[in-house]
Amino acid sequence: MMPKRFVRTLAAALVGGAALFAAGAASAQETAICYNCPPEWADWGSQLKAIRSRLNIVVPPDNKNSGQSIAALIAEKASPVADVTYLGGIAADPARDAGVLTPYKPKGWDKIPASLKDPEGHWFTIHSGTLGLFVNKAALGGKPVPQSWSDLLKPEYKGLVGYLDPTSAAVGQLGVMAINLALGGSYDNLDPAIRFFKELHKNQPIVPKQTSYARVISGEIPILLDYDFNAYRGQYKDMAPVAFVIPKEGTLVFPYVMGLVKNGPHAANGQKVLDFVLSDESQAMWGNAFLRPVFADKLSAEAKAKFLPESEYARAKPVDLKKLAAAQAAIIERYRNEVK
């Protein structure tokens, strides 16, 4: 028979071990996996730090683009890895239709304009950006800063222009449509854009698949079809010799959305992350990173003063997300078959 003191010690050890195990398990739960939350894009780095500080939830950085994220979510549908995802607006309805998102209406949902959210809560906009030319002036070798889409076709810019791959990246697909509409096309007629990109292909463009902010800052890609928020970040935060140009033919304003992954392993934490990105603090942070928060009043006067004048933004029109999503397959197919 074991001595009573030994029994008490053993019981205490077992209780203590169980408590430690429970604490460890609880600690392990304080995670949320986000697909397409790259720290170098749209100031996600600051957001991920804030989420960890405010919510005690670690969200590992993830460098997928929108197309790669949806492909991974579909492949993992039977056993999801991610809890939330961030997508270019063009990918919002396709992700919903693929059955990889589940409805969740975070705090602040009611204040989001109807055109910027799924009525059932599968996705919602957190901020938007205006597409244009992100230019490293020092890397142009004395050439003038281009002012239009058509300028990019000039021989003097050979090898200097970049854009993200339209076969997978949302910003690449938006670039096709922005140029298409600016040059007289429609959501149903992509011919102007295809002609443009075939001509641009002769100028040996650089076509990465991932966000390429650092490559513009370094001068490796002197001209990138990209958003205003990245250009302003380079200009005002990294003090790089860069500028943002809204092409004279016109362009598009594009929303970015988030949604809760269906059957994600840390659903409760995912919901907390989605609540946070619509909070006053997070919305103000997006604004201070030169994005236009979905709640416009959270863009500070100080940040807005660093944007181009409103007269320039008059050439930037809101994208029709449903029409753009309907054109997505044709954009990918025609680019792949006729341009690449």
Automatic annotation (TrEMBL):
Supply the Pfam families for this chain. Answer: SBP_bac_6
- SUPFAM superfamilies attached here? Periplasmic binding protein-like II
Q: Which Gene3D superfamilies has this protein been placed in?
A: Periplasmic binding protein-like II
Provide the alphabetized UniProt keywords: Signal
Q: Which domain of life is it from?
A: Bacteria
Q: Where is the signal peptide?
A: 1-28
Protein name, as recorded = ABC transporter substrate-binding protein
Q: Which organism is it from?
A: Azonexus hydrophilus
